[in-house]
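LAB NOTEBOOK - FOLDING QUEUE
OPERATOR: T.R.
BATCH SIZE: 2
PURPOSE: Compare the predicted structure-token outputs for two unrelated chains run back to back under identical settings.
PRIORITY: normal
REVIEWER: second-year student, initials M.K.

ITEM 1
FIELD SEQUENCE / FIELD STRUCTURE:
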Amino acid sequence: MTESGDRVPDLPLQLASGGNATLGDYAGKWLVMYFYPKDATPGCTTEGLDFNALLPKFRRAGAVVLGVSKDSLKSHRSFCEKQGFKFDLVSDGEGALCDAFGVIQPRKLYGREFLGIVRSTFLIDPAGAVRRKWQPVKVSGHAQAVLEALKAEQSE
């Protein structure tokens, strides 16, 4: 499980925009990586729209935003297109990224227990270290809180 202060592993990323990257490709930049349960669900849509609305401010602060779930690339592409997201979504179908960041945890829905993604966000500095971690996340106001944390970290 990745905690504040830990260096992130250089894992491969399948990007909805087409192509592959690794976490190491983001070295030298601030990275906001948020994990969410499922494309096109109400909370996940709201969270994505909130990050998208603040994307120009994140970019001005030198940060890249990535959303991560276990959904397929096809699902991510459709989700991005429908919602107009201007940032990339990462397909983690095998769960390697989710496992490395410790976001797969026991969950309960309608009385049924299962393992699933707990909504989580990680603020990663240009050296590849986690500076802030939010887990679990409440969607309302979260993107703004992450932006404020980014600015606070940059001013230290």
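ITEM 2
FIELD SEQUENCE / FIELD STRUCTURE:
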Amino acid sequence: MSFQQGLSGLSASARNLEVIGHNIANANTIGAKASRAEFADLYAISTVGGLSNTPGIGVGPGTIAQQFNQGGLTSTGNALDLAINGGGFFQVTDESNPTQFSRNGQFKLDKDGYVVNNQGLKLMGYPATAAGQIQPGVASALKLPTGGVDPAATTASILELNLDSRVAATTTALTPAAATIDIQDPATYNNATSSTVYDVKGQPVTLTYYFQKAGTDQWNVYATANGQSINGITTPAESVNAMAPIATITFPPTGGNPIQPPGAIGDVTPYTYATTGTQTAGTPVTADGTITLPTIPAITLTAGGTSEPILATTLNLKGLTQYGAGFGVTNVEVDGNAPGSLSGLNVEADGTLTARYSNGKTKAAGQLELVNFRNPNGLQPVGGNAWTTSAASGDPVRNVPGQGNLGLIQSGALEESNVDLTAELVNMMTAQRMYQANAQTIKTEDQIMNTLVNLR
């Protein structure tokens, strides 16, 4: 008689209980994956006889298989809590030992600006240039910028708006009649809108555009900076707010975009309308309707200082329309910016880390690189919710989130453990019964042996 079957059964049941206990212990561990003990029956193989009439000798260890199915996502509101919704692993490194792979997205910033996990390992991805351009290639430890954004002077603006074709011309309201516009008198123009431009120091200047209907399908455009004309004239002397227009626009009868690019006044020379809608004096314009504004002079700022002159600023007016609808601005685009300091961070679904600055600007600070494996079950667990490669797992396949079979990044969320606690408790009861049953076979074998020994 043999105790082998019962002993192997006890060993297998104990191993199964260990795996179940490990799963239960990690039921609340972020990014943890459940494991399953797998076993195989044992036979004593003879080279001369078959196995058809041979009883087995018990159970032997098979493997502990990891279950990499998706865990549930829970919201945290922390921008650096990241969850992978789909396949793939984060890459983390200490920059000296082999790279580790994890599904745990509990990341933080260390004192040097690196994105790290609770073990101090650095998250890996692609860096970005100072201008915010991602540099794909070999992944390295991601480090967020600590500096701010330098100021930049405005060089170009775009206006898109509709001028109401139903309104009457306002040039007749001017006093004296030879004047061009009086910005203090709304009766001398029809509409106005503003945008903020910046000098080389990043100091803001409010640029206001005034639209004056001069006749059927024809409009004058004037501009002031903080209330001061950027194209002022000294005549007629009776009107202290007289100024030269920066452009004149002729619309087609349909009211669509200007039939020709608007002209621009580059000096104080008076101009007249030509039949084509261009002007007889001024500077050339580009084919897309971009004019060059006069130099915006030094302006007294709200805080009391003085701005720097803003040179060679362009304005695109090709998007203007003149329909039978109310005045409405649909788009204003201005380049340039004030200085700004880092104020926050967003992580996009494709893994792009977007830095937010106090001046409202954003730019990419890097991009995560995820990896996947042909056989994730072959990964070697090393603790700390991480794995390393092995011969069984194969080499990692790298790409950005959302590409190939890689999942998307969910910022402000974490992936919970995929342990099913109810199922584990049921499995534990079953394993306990199996342990008891195997112990019973040993007890029965012992009783039989005792009976044989006591035979007379």
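REVIEWER COMMENT (ITEM 2): The first helix runs from residue 4 to 25.
FOLLOW-UP: none requested
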